[in-house]
Amino acid sequence: MTNAWSGSGTLTVQRQGESAGAAEDLDAGIGLLREVAAGTTGATLRLYRPAPTVAFGQRDSRLPGFPAAAAACLDQGFAPLVRRAGGRAAAYHQGCLVVDHVEPHADAVARTKARFLAFGDLFAESLQDLGIDAAVGEIPGEYCPGEFSVHGTGDHRPPAEPLSVKLVGTAQRVISGAWLFSSVIVVEDSAPIRRALTSAYSALGLDWDPRTAGAAEDLVPGITVDDVEAAVLRAYARTVDLR
Hints:
globular, alpha/beta, 11 strands
């Protein structure tokens, strides 16, 4: 994991007590990235529970069905936002944990793919620590498909046979002097997320398999966001100093 960044090996952990709002939370991440690039803030690990949000990709916003998709999300209590990064629509809410890792780097573009793989491994390891059969890699039909998504497998919904669900989606933003790696871990209450994504993808005319939208607690009942946060911090502490 340490090969994925070139910082001092120390991270300041910043816990956000409450969501400031869907758009405000995303803007805060970009603001932190700029502070780190400017040298006014050091390498930071920001953790928070987000407000209900459906983050659409730029390609989604150009589809004819986007206004209907955004309206459907609002009807279900999810704020529709268009993120600057690529990918397709992803949904999250207070039952999720967002992990923003921001590091200064003179050549922030370097090793972008290596970071995707390293962080995928870190989050898979964190979920394995909680008893989840987790691995890195895209699963057929997943929402916002990505090569380095983290999925878990279990017999959590009928029919009683192993079924893989996406648990972690990742994205990366790079500017001159720093990079931001943002990850969303779906931990609790997957049903509202599944409903919002079903409405959004239907309006956009995109195919996907709703069974791939799940949460950690679907695979190991009783897991909480606090449990996952503690597991993530334990995984980090094995390779860097946290303060």
